[in-house]
Amino acid sequence: MEAGTVAGGRVACDLLLVFGDAAAVLQGCSLYARCPAPGQKNVVTTQGREDPNQSTGIVVQGGKVAVAADLASLVANVSSYLGRPWKRYSCAVFAQTKMEALVHPRGWLEWNATFALDTLYYAEYMNRVCCKPI
Questions:
Q1: DSSP 3-state assignment of 77?
Q2: What is the pTM of this model?
Q3: Over the stretch 81-131, which tens digit does the pLDDT of each residue have?
Q4: Rounded CA separation 84/91 (Å)
């Protein structure tokens, strides 16, 4: 993924929706979690910044995280998360985003127990779940 801004796009995917190491801004986009393979979880972002001085990260702003039709009847049985670290300085932000009630209450998923928990940057700002503030 190269640096850039996507406005008003639609992304539907199982397992990993937005993956890579770039400066990526998704504004007003709809991100749809699909039904993953049995035993797998959905992860909306997996960011891979390796150097704390890089200006890379994923920002999802003003859009929505929703359930795709193939996941709708199974959403209670599938865990979905906002993100997980891929590299040590992973960076992801969700701001002013509407989220259907599919996101696990923990919000974020660890990778290999405690990997990068002391160096990553994850943030949430003024998001809404089912049209109610988080």
A1: helix
A2: 0.85
A3: 999 998 999 999 999 999 988 899 899 999 888 899 999 999 999 999 875
A4: 9
- Spatial neighbors of 11 by CB under 8 A, at least 6 apart, are 17, 18, 26, 29, 30, 31, 32
Phi-psi region of 75 (alpha: psi -120 to 50; beta: other; left: phi over 0): alpha
What φ, ψ does residue 103 adopt, rounded to 5°?
-70, 130
Q: Which amino acid is at 46?
A: T
CA–CA separation, 9 and 131 (whole Å): 21
Tell me the domains of the chain and their CATH numbers: 4-133 (2.160.20.10)
CB 92 within 8 A of CB 83: yes
Q: Which residue has the tokens 């795709």?
A: 68
Pairing of strands 10-13, 30-33: parallel
C-beta pairs of 72-78 under 8 Å, 24+ apart in sequence: 74/35, 75/101, 75/102, 78/33, 78/35, 78/36, 78/41, 78/42, 78/102
